Each structure stands twice: as C-alpha cells, then as structure tokens.
Amino acid sequence: MELFDNHRKLFGTAALFFIVLTTLVAIMPAINNQEKNASLPDAVPLSEDAIKGKALFVSNGCVGCHTQQVRNVDMDKVWGARPSLAADYADIHRTDFWRNTATLMGTERTGPDLTDIGTRQPGKEWHLVHLFNPRTVVKESIMPAYPWLFTIKKEPSKSDIIVNVPAEYLDGQEGKVVATKDAMYLVAYLQSLKQVKLPDGETSPGFLYKREEKKTGDNGPGAMPDGQALFAANCQSCHQANGEGLQGAFPPLKGSAVVMGDNLEMYVDIIMNGYDARAEFGTMPAVGTNAGFTELDVAALINYERSSWGNEGKKVSPDEVKKIMDFLKLKVTK
Amino acid sequence: MQTNIFGKTASLIISFLVFEIIPVTARANPSDFSFHSGKTPVWIALLFTLLLLFIAIILKQRITGVRNIYKKRKLEQQGHLLRKYTLSLNSRQIEKLIQYRQKNKNYVNSNKVTALLFFIFTIGLSLISYNDASAQDAVKTANNSLLGEAGIWITVVLLLIPITAGVVLIFVKVTNILNQQKNNYLTEEAEALAAHLRSLPEEEAEALLKKRKAALDYQLTHKELSGSQQADDEKGLLQIHDGTELPIVALKKKALQRPNVDPALSRLILWYLGCATFWLLFGTTVGEYVGIKFVAPDADHLSWLSFGRLRPVHTNAVFWGWASLGMLGLGYYVVPRVSNTKLASMKKGWCALILINAAVLLGSICLMAGINNGGGEYREYIWPVMLLFGMGLLLTLENFIKTIATRTTKEIYISNWYIVSAIMFALVITIVAYVPYWQNGLGETIIQGYYMHQGVGMWFMLFTLGFVYYILPQQLNKPIYSYSLGILAFWTQILFYTTIGTHHFVFSSIPWWLQTVAIVGSAGMAIPVLAGTTNFLMTFKGGWYKVKDSYTLPFFLVGIIFYFTGSMQGTAEAFRSTNLMWHFTDFTTAHSHLTMYGIICFFIWAGVYAIVPRLTGREAPQIAVGMHFWLALIGLLFYTVPLMYGSTLKGLMWMEGKPFIESVVLMAPYWLWRAIGGSLMWLSHLVFAYNMYKMIANREVVDVQETAIQKLEENTAAIQPIA
To answer: CA–CA separation, B593 vs B636, rounded Å?
Structure first.
C-alpha cells in the first residue's frame, strides 16, 4: 500500500492521528476545564507565608505520599466533608517562570490525604513536632524527618519559636529546637489547607459506593462503635496511644481531670468543639464536629478513655451525651 | 473401591476448604486463625480424622496386596506360573541355573513359618489399644458442649497425643506382620520354583534356556547406522568442543558471527548502552535506598537524600537515563539495519547522547537540591532540563527519518513504524506537558494524567515493541508470525492508549465523562496487547526448543509474559470497582514495576545481549547472564507479589474505614519484602554491568589463530599492498 511504503505519508498520518486524539482527550478538556471553573466565593487565597510553604511542600516531594483530593467515594469521607470539586483547584496557576502549576492532587496515599488537614489539625505545635521527627508523635509513622527545617540553639531568644522535642529524638544534641522560617512557612501552608464551604443553596455531590452497615444482629441501631478505633483515628496522634500525651505540647488523658471528672458537659464540648484554655499546651481542634461524630461515637470514645490506661471512670450512655450535644448545638447557633 | 475412598476423602477436603478457608480469606484480614478461637478443636478433630483415614487407606492397600499374592497362588495354575517365572529369568540367572544343572545335585530344604502365633498376639494387643482409643474418643464427644473452653481443648490435645501415637504404632506393627507374611508366601513360591527348575527334563531345559539366554545376550554392534568408515567433516558442519569438564550451567549457543557493523556506529551504540547501564546502576541504587526508607525512615536526615526528593530522582533516572538511552542505543542498530542503509548522521547521534545525559545529570542534581517542576509524576524535571532531553529526541527523530528516507528496501519494516512513532509521540507529549497555556487548575491534572501514561505507553512501550519486532525474529531465525497483526496492534495502540491517561484520576474532580473514556480506552487496550502477544508467541511456535539453547530468548519470553499480564493488569486496575480498592495504594507501585521492569527492562536486556556481541565479538560469561536473569526475575516477583497482596489488604482496610495508621502498620512486612526483592534486582544490575564490561572491554588476550593469520597477511601485504 502506498501509505505504508511512503515514510512521509506513514509517519505523517500516525503523527496526525496522535495529535488529533491528544487534542480531543487532553488539550481541549484541559482548556475547557480551566476556563469553565472559578474558585468558590468563600475561598481564601494563600497568604505569602503559605505560598512559600507550598514551594517547600513541592520541592521536598511531599506529593509523592500525600494526596490532596477527596474522591466522591464513601471511603474518602474521612478526609473531608464533601468530595473535592474542580472549583477547589480553579485558582491554582503557574507557580513561576521555572515551575508548572501545582495542584498537588497526588496519586499515592502512603500518608494521609491533606485536603482538609488545616481543619483536622490546626495547631502549629503538633505540626512542628511532627515535622522535626514524625515518630515523636506517631510511633508507627514512616514519614521522613525534616530536621533541616529547624535549628538547635543553646540559648534561644524570646522571639524564637521553641519546639518541645523529647530528648531521645535529638540524637544527643543539647539545646532547644527552634523552628526556622521555612518550618513556619510550611506549617502556614498546612494550616491553610481547608475545604471551602459551598455557597448557600449549593448541594455538594454525594459520596458513592456507600459502605454497607455491618449486620451486628444485636441491639440494632444501639450497637456501639469501636471506641478504640475512633481514638486511634482521631485522638491518638496528639494524646498518644498510651494516653500520656506529649510534655509541653499535648496534655495527658491518663488521670486527666476532664476525663475522670464529673463535668460531662465540658468533656463533650471539648471533644466536639475543641479547646484552647491552657497556654502550656497546643490548641485542640473541633475534632468531633470535623469528623461528624454522633452521640454514639462520642459515648464510645468517652467510655474508651474512661476505661483505659488505668482510668476507671463512670460509663456514659449515648442518651446522656445526646442531651448535652443538643444543648451545645443550641448554644452555638445562638 | 480405593478410588471411591480417595474420592470421598477429596470431596471431604474440598468441601472443608470451601466452607472454612474461603470465607476467612474473603474477609480480607490475614487469616484470623488463632489458638484461642473456638474453631481450633474443629481443626484438630478434622486433622485427626484425616490422619486416621489416611492410615486406614494405606493399611487397606497393604492387606489387598498380600491377599492378591495369596489369591494368585490359589487360583492360578501352579505349572503355568512356574513356567512364566522360568521365562522371565535374566541372563545371569539362567547361566547359574545351567551351571547348577550340570552339577545336578538335589537337596531339599524347608522352612516352617512360626509367625502366626505372634501375629494373633499382636492383633489382640492392637485391638485392645484400639478399644482404648475409642474410649478416649467417647470422652472427647462427651466434652463436646464444653469445647469453647481453652482448658478443655488443651486436655483434648493431650489425650489425642497418646491416641495418635497408638494408632501409628498399630500401623507400624500391622505393616511389619503383613510384610513378613508376604515374604513367607514369596519364599514358598521361590522354593516351588527351584524344585520346578531342578525337575525340568534335559532337552526342554537346553532348548528353552539356551535360546532364551542367547536372546537376552543379543546386542547391537553400534555400527548398524554409521557403517565402519572413519568420520570426516568435509563441509565444516561440526563444531567440536574438547572441554570435557562438567559444566556448572547449561551450555548455550554462542552468538553468531555477523558481517561487521560500521565501527563508528558500533562505538556510538556501545556508548549509548554503556551510559544506559550507568544510569541503571545509579537509578536503581537510589531506588533501593528509597525502598529501604520504607523500613528504616530514619536512615539519614539529609535534605538531599530525603525520601520525597530521591523518589523522583529514581524514577526519572531509570526512565530518561536507563530505559530511554538503552532503547535509543538499540534503535541506532535496528533502524539502519532494517532500512538496509547507513545511519544518516553519526554526529547527531553523539549530540543526542550528550544532550540526554546532560538532562538526566542536571535533572537529578536539581531534584536533590529541591528544584522541582510542581510534583506531577515523571514531570519533575523543570522545563530547561526537559528541553535538553527534547532536543536530544528531536535530533534522533531527524536522524532516523533521514536514514529511513534513504532506505534501499521498498517497504518500511514494522520496527521503524514503532520506533519513529515513539519518538514523534514522545516529543508531542513533552510539548503538551510543558507548554503552560492549558495548565491552570484542573487543566494541569488532565494533562498530567495524559502525560504520565503516554510517557509509558507511547514512548517506552512503542519503542520497545519496535526493536522487539526486529531482534526477536532475528534471534529465532524466522520471520515474524504476522505482519498484519503488528499493523493492527500499531493503530489500535494509538487509538486506545491515547485516551487512557485520566484513569489515574478516577473519582477525582475531573469530568466524569473523561474518566469513563479513559476506562473504556483501558479495556480497549486488550486488542493491541493480545495482538502483540499472539504475534510474538506465534513467532516462537516451532522454535521453542531454541529457548533452552539461547541466553537471549529467556529474556524475551519473560518480557512477552509480562507484556500480556502487566498490560492486562493495567486494564483491570482501571475499572471503577477496582479503583476503589487499589487506587492510592502500593498496588500502583507494584504494577509500574511489573511493566517498566518486567516488560521494558527485560526486552532491553534481551536486545543488549543479542546486539552487543555482534558489535564487539565478545560475549558475557553465560553463568553471569544466567545470574542476571534469575536475580532480576526472582527479585521482581519478591518485589511485586507481596506488595500487591499487602496493598489489596490495605485498600480493603481503608474501605472498612479503619484508622489510617493501621494500614501503615499492616504494610510493614510487605515493605520489607519489597526491600528484599529490590535488593535482588539491584544485585542483578551489578551482574549486568559486569556483563557489559565483559562484552565491551578490549581484553588484551592474544588469539593464536587470528594473530597467525594476521602475521601471514602482513607478510603478503608487504609484498603486494591492498588498495
């Protein structure tokens, strides 16, 4: 055939075929997408610090392990309140002359998704300790340590941001760990990663592939969730698996007055809405609200915390918790 | 009767497997077997029953054997049997018999059997102990309601130990008795036979025995076919090795000597392949270290060596350094050869080599220094670095097309379709990926999905298929099975592969229709993959025996197998349901190694081992090629299989909503296996580098024959210079 024996025609046809297909499935959808979508009205542009932090996030290859996309499937619910939308990425443009756009959606989740990390973990204390060496706070973590974002000073000045790292993670160096500007930029970026609320009246697309409720058989709807699993997923990275917290950063729950005390209202309030009353510790985020805890979850969690690490507290029932949660909601709306 | 028993046993075991084991695995956790679980007694009872059944079957077989001997003796005609025995004597026995008969002495000796009493005694004993066992079984059944209690089943186990020992003892005793009995019968038979042989009449004995002996002693002269003339290889067909030592590895055929390739082109190709080998060593050393970091995250705390920076160094060095240069090196051999012409420009070849090496070197340094394009996979090199690579490709494209334009064949061989298209498409995707006009917001992601997958499928796969279409038939010494299948695969590859990029972003916020197109395209990939696999395997047809004689064909075979399995695995991964389970897990890492390593690397190695000896006239030691092959293959399986298994469990764990950190803990052993497999792969690359050295390095060993001829030629040349 003439086509096959003429190199111009053969290679010309193949190239044309490929370029046409490329235009149809890549270039046109890409252009269409970038023109059609705009960012949400409530979206906050990155601060200058956060922009520098994002550059650090990119240059250290964090996207190799951390995604920034909540897929519209049920299993991704833990990473955000709603599936990510094209609008969430619409405002991301070319970084600079040398570097391409970085949506940082990622393709591998060796570590947790970071779409909403700023909501889940707003305190800088945790991030700093974790960045210095992740195993300080999460023993099982395999994330790299980033000690080059910190300096060690014998006599830090007042303006220095001191990170309370246990001595065993200092490799024998003496002095205080002080966060460099880079560390603060990176934390600023992580803190800025929050899912933006949809405008009023907009409904979010649903999550697909709902998980089937496990047939426990007994008690029907009253079956309690696993308190230990809830603790591991939501609380453990600060308060630690042994309930002892981290000195100078996160308070212990073992023997804690809040956990063991009689003020159940305050206890539920802290779980649902966070806490920032004690200067010596970091800020606690609104863990329960962020994760969408029900009264069953809260009760299971409280019962787990009250019966672990030597704690022997009174068990609570979901009904008691529900009353308090309804009351707290009223307070918030007022 | 026996098969019946076996059938029943088999069905019992199978039904047990179906009802007990399958649900366990389907639950997806590692088998929840525990010595504290209530199921343990069931397992033990079952094992015990199986043991009893097994022993019963063996005993039954033994008894039947003995009974058969007895029956045979009763039923068959004594004379007939003895005659049969006589005829089946061997030559030596006949000779002794004849000698004996000549001495012709008679005496009878008989031996009485006295084992009967002992037999009855033992049976009685066994019965008693068996009764014991039944009694204890009864105890066990009575306890059945209490089986949930740990203490009870410990007791049951303790009771079962002596029972089992007793059963085994009975078995041994009964077997011994049966053996004795059998031997007694046989001894009696032997005596009868001896008597029969003594009593044979003279003439019959002579006729029968001597004739039989002559028949048995008959031997061929070993010259029936060859005749008695001395062998002489007049046409030089035979190659005789006089090495007589036992070979450690199978001896494979030597590479065939070919007409010399232009030494300048040889040098260029060898430099390409040599640089590729360097980047393979560099890239996989980095990869190995990155793999170790999954097991030992605190191995070092240097920014330049941190995981996030080294990971792209590894992927890009093996992509643009090793695989690309390796393919191009082979391309420089294949393109002029199938065009039956000279390479258009040697200079451009060298320029391209320098540009690509510079790109990988600079790119690696940039990445380690933290200079990164934005995080898209395989797009981590910033544009000035990738520009060098692109220029290298452009030069190569021009060079190859000009070479093909001056071809002396009418048609363009299919290899050149694939190779030239691969370079054109690689240029197109690089331009699409680096031009900024369509990269804002999700545009970047759509382009990323397109780019990363076209990089694999349109650059590496297409180019590799191109040189395989030439080197594989050449190594098999037969034409490719079907040219048309190659053409079908070519066009369908372009049609389907181009569309599948976004399957890396299924369930993400890129348009749903685009995801669907990608999934459909992934399914369509079955067509080119099947066409290609069929074509290669059918080319092997009738030449399979060559695999064991060749050290290149095994590499091709592994490449073909992974071409099929790896590519179809890619299709399977693209569906929405499998995406739920496998996306974001290490399954992707396992898949990319199965394909990039199992297909691309194995094909490149096959090509290197086929081509380099032709260029240099030197071969790698076969034992080292074998080591390279097996270390790479076993390493790859150790790397990928545990990773696929572990990541499936991880995905299911995520779907169940377990805390994330549990999935990290779960993966620890599989990451360790990955590091072990990776180490084997890395070792195989050291061996490969050694092989490259052996094939390329000019070792100053004087070849006696060659030098002698040269000396003669020098003498002639002195008299009559050659123009």
So the answer is: 8
What contacts B14, CB < 8 A, 6 or more positions away?
none
DSSP state of B146: G
Determine the distance in angstroms separating the CA of A237 from the nearest CA of chain B, rounded to an integer: 10
> How far does the CA of residue B405 sit from the closest CA of chain A (Å)?
7
The answer to whether B437 contacts A17, with C-beta atoms less than 8 Å apart, is: no
Contacts B302 to A, Cβ<8 Å: 148
Q: Which helix (H) or strand (E) holds B307?
A: helix B307-316
Q: Say yes or no for a CB contact (<8 Å) between B664 and A83.
A: no
Q: What angle do CA A148, A153, A157 make, to 5 degrees?
A: 120
Rounded Cα distance between A86 and B511, Å, is 9
* Residue from the list B380, B439, B442 with its beta carbon closest to the beta carbon of A37: B442
Q: Using the beta-carbon criterion (under 8 Å), do B372 and A58 form an inter-chain contact?
A: yes
Give the residue among A163, A326, A138 at the shortest CA–CA distance from A236. A138
Among B367, B373, B656, beta carbon nearest to A100: B373
Q: Do B499 and A19 make contact, defined as CB atoms within 8 angstroms?
A: no
DSSP state of B597: I
Three-class DSSP category at B584: strand
**Averaged in consecutive runs of 10 residues, what is the pLDDT profile of chain B (723 residues)?**
48 46 39 49 77 85 78 66 76 80 52 44 49 44 49 65 80 87 85 81 77 86 81 78 67 73 92 97 96 92 94 96 97 95 95 97 96 90 96 97 94 95 97 94 93 94 96 94 93 94 88 91 94 95 90 95 92 88 94 95 97 91 94 95 94 90 93 95 96 85 72 72 50
Q: In what order do the strands lie in the sheet with A150-153?
A: A150-153, A176-179, A162-163
* Adjacent-strand bridge partners of A177: A152, A163
Q: Is A59 close to B372, i.e. CB distance below 8 A?
A: yes
CB B645 within 8 A of CB B582: no
Secondary structure of chain A in the HEC alphabet?
Answer: CHHHHCHHHHHHHHHHHHHHHHHHHHHHHHHHHHHHCCCCCCCCCCCHHHHHHHHHHHHCCHHHCCCCCCCCEHHHHHHCCCCCCHHHHCCCCCCCCCCCCCCCCCCECCCCCCCCHHHHCCCHHHHHHHHHCHHHCCCCCCCCCCHHHEEEECCCCCCCCEECCCHHHCCCCCCEEEECHHHHHHHHHHHHCCCCCCCCCCCCCCCECCCCCCCCCCCHHHCCCCHHHHHHHHCHHHHCCCCCCECCCECCCCCCHHHHCCCHHHHHHHHHHCECCCCCCCCECCHHHHHCCCHHHHHHHHHHHHCCCCCCCCCCCHHHHHHHHHHHHHHHHC
Tell me the pLDDT tens digit for each residue of B102-150: 776 444 333 333 444 444 445 544 544 444 444 444 444 444 445 555 5
Contacts of A210 (CB under 8 A, 6+ apart): A74
Structural contact between residues A242 and A121, judged by C-beta atoms closer than 8 angstroms: no
Helix axis angle for B602-616 and B324-339, nearest 10°, is: 60
Sign for the pseudo-dihedral over CA of B95, B100, B102, B103: positive
Residues 43-102 on A with a CB inside 8 Å of B are 58-65, 67, 69, 71-73, 75-76, 78, 83-86, 88-95, 98-102
Q: Where are the alpha helices (DSSP H) in B617-658?
A: 622-655
Contacts of A73 in chain B (CB under 8 A): 507, 580
pLDDT tens digit sequence for B507-517: 988 889 999 99
Closest of A311, A238, A241 to residue A281, by C-alpha? A238
**A147–B655 CB contact, under 8 Å:** no
pTM for the full predicted model: 0.75
Q: Is the dihedral of CA B705, B709, B711, B712 positive or negative?
A: positive
